[in-house]
Design a protein that fits this description.
With 552 residues, this protein is of the alpha+beta class. The protein has helices at residues 28-34, 58-69, 76-89, 95-111, 141-153, 156-159, 162-173, 180-189, 214-218, 241-256, 271-291, 302-305, 308-315, 435-447, 453-458, 469-474, 494-502, and strands at 2-7, 12-17, 91-92, 120-121, 129-130, 137-138, 192-194, 197-201, 230-234, 341-347, 353-359, 413-417, 423-430, 462-464, 485-489, 506-510, 520-528, 535-541.
Length: 552
């Protein structure tokens, strides 16, 4: 669990890292041995392995978020009450959730002896339970029991007592190394308040977004004295938000050097535009794959990576006439995978806003269910590297070690206005390694395409293949043209698709439910009416998911 909170009074963005760590016995030697890896053999923790389970951080993160950023007007029991009611009384399952639940049914059944807790009771089904179908009522009374304990006892209700004991028991029964002491450690440590990282973006004529409001107030020549632009805020490592900042910074450096134009709305989602976005993201992922790690264990040079000098150096790798060839960028991020993530953005009458995300990672995580708890265990530890060196004698910062947090894909985002620190928006795009790609495309949709929040989410997107582990390093899933594949969503103009192919991209079109790979986003944006000086909230919710923009 990660969040960014915008305090309207202080005009400040704060961050909270609610991710969990590996267990105290999760040594590199122990896990490699358990997986049967021989000395020198490369490998990863499988997504369905019990060794992919790290200490769950979300439950503590909820409590810590309420205590740190809440108004104090609601208790945790009041906040959890609607979820408890839905779990006990049931809820109609939506189409998207039903589709992916069905795809995970076999793994839920086989991962542990308690899988039926995550399925709908049906006497006619195998084992008396199955995945719920769209429109059917799903109840989860054991999850309601877990939430009641958390509401009554706080973090202790999850990290000690019955829930903790069942969690550790199912892991140990399957050969895992997690212990009660690891959960007690997280209970004592809690979530970590951290400083958000950001990039000030003044490129792509972004100043024109303010021409009807700020420039009007500035009067004649007033705009020359104002710093007009957007500051994009991301959660720092061990999250991958720095990918979005790096890519945006590289694009700004390319524009400053005259290697890409200052685009107009007509350029949005054209082949040259997407080529620059794709290549900037490739370079950003190459850096993040090496540097993103637990900053409490490894030195992560975020400030240096986001410096204008470094961004200009990385921008020099861009070829405006051709896609980067396989093997030309060092290091690769963990594999592109599906994600079972919940992102929400909330704003209040005082102008405060939160960008909040938590996730079980791939699908239903490991699909392992602690008895009587009503949830599956995540597989976040699968993102650790299991090699002591990269083949060239350098030690990867994200290598597995005890009590260490892995590379996380989930990232909340926020944007503020440079001229006065006011809020521009809070937003996020769920979907594994698609997330920073979504952040860049959705933000630029609003800046370059001049799109509303809903239009920016509706627009077709691209998703980079080969940003991943073995696929990046060994060439697996490589493109027919010698370039990493680029997945393009149905609805992208045909001339754009052909233009990308002409630039050397191995384009693969994606349609129907598989469009989930392009993420599912939410946006809340703040603006001011230029004539009446009245603040207006606007919002959008991704058509690829089951969410909604909901005013109260």
């Amino acid at each position: 669990m990660f969040c960014l909170f915008y305090n309207a009074t202080a005009k400040k963005v704060s961050a909270l890292n609610g991710s969990g760590r590996s267990g105290s016995k999760y040594t590199l030697e122990a896990i490699r041995s358990a997986l049967g890896l021989k000395p020198g053999e490369r490998g990863r923790i499988p997504m369905n392995s019990v060794h992919a389970v790290s200490v769950p951080g979300a439950a503590a993160g909820w409590v810590d978020t309420v205590e740190r950023f809440g108004s104090g007007k609601l208790s945790l029991a009041q906040i959890l009450a609607p979820a408890i009611r839905l779990a006990e009384e049931g809820f109609p399952v939506s189409e998207g959730v039903a589709y992916f639940w069905d795809k995970s049914e076999a793994q839920i059944r086989g991962a542990s002896l308690n899988g039926a807790e995550m399925l709908k009771k049906d006497p006619g089904a195998t084992g008396g339970a199955r995945a719920p179908r769209a429109g059917e009522i799903m109840k989860n009374p054991t999850l309601a029991r877990t939430f009641r304990t958390l509401a009554a006892e706080g973090k202790k209700g999850f990290y000690a007592g019955r829930v903790a004991e069942e969690l550790v028991k199912v892991v140990r029964d399957l050969g895992g190394l997690l212990e009660l002491d690891d959960l007690a450690h997280h209970l004592a440590t809690g979530s970590e308040p951290v400083d958000a990282i950001s990039l000030q973006f003044r490129g792509q004529n972004v100043a024109q977004l303010f021409k009807d409001t700020v420039l009007r107030d500035g009067g004649a020549g007033g705009d020359e004295k104002l710093d007009l632009g957007i500051e994009l805020w991301e959660h720092p490592p061990n999250g991958q938000g720095i990918v979005a900042l790096l890519a945006l910074g590289i694009l700004e450096a390319l524009e400053a050097a005259g290697r890409i134009p200052t685009w107009t709305p007509a350029d949005f989602n054209t082949a040259p535009y997407l080529h620059a976005v794709i290549e900037a993201l490739r370079i950003a992922f190459a850096d993040a794959s090496w540097f993103v790690a637990d900053p409490n264990v490894e030195a992560v040079p975020s400030a240096e990576l986001l410096s204008r000098e470094y961004l200009a150096q990385r921008a020099a790798l861009f070829d405006p006439g051709h896609a980067a060839a396989l093997g030309t960028l060092p290091h690769g991020s963990p594999a592109l995978r599906s994600s079972d993530t919940v992102y929400l953005a909330v704003a209040d009458a005082g102008g405060n806003a939160i960008s909040f995300i938590n996730s079980n990672y791939g699908g239903f995580g490991t699909c392992i269910v602690p008895q009587g708890c009503g949830f599956t265990l995540q597989n976040r530890a699968a993102n650790f590297t299991l090699e002591e060196d990269d083949g060239a004698g350098a030690r990867p910062p994200n290598v597995l070690a005890p009590r260490k947090r892995p590379y996380h894909t989930i990232i909340p985002a926020a944007a503020t206005n440079l001229h006065d620190g006011s809020l521009h928006s809070v937003f996020g795009v769920m979907g594994g390694f698609m997330q920073p790609q979504g952040h860049v495309q959705v933000l630029l949709g609003q800046v370059v395409g001049r799109l509303s929040p809903q239009q920016a989410l509706d627009a077709p997107r691209v998703c980079l293949g080969g940003v991943g582990g073995a696929s990046w390093l060994t060439g697996a899933d490589d493109g027919a043209a010698g370039a990493w594949p680029v997945y393009v969503e149905e609805g992208m103009p045909a001339e754009t698709v052909e233009g990308l192919r002409a630039l050397g991209h191995d384009v693969r079109l994606v349609a129907d439910m598989e469009r989930a790979m392009f993420g599912r986003g939410q946006i809340i944006r703040w603006s001011v009416d230029p004539l009446d000086s009245v603040g207006v909230w606007s919002a959008g919710s991704d058509p690829r998911g089951d969410g909604a923009a909901y005013p109260l």
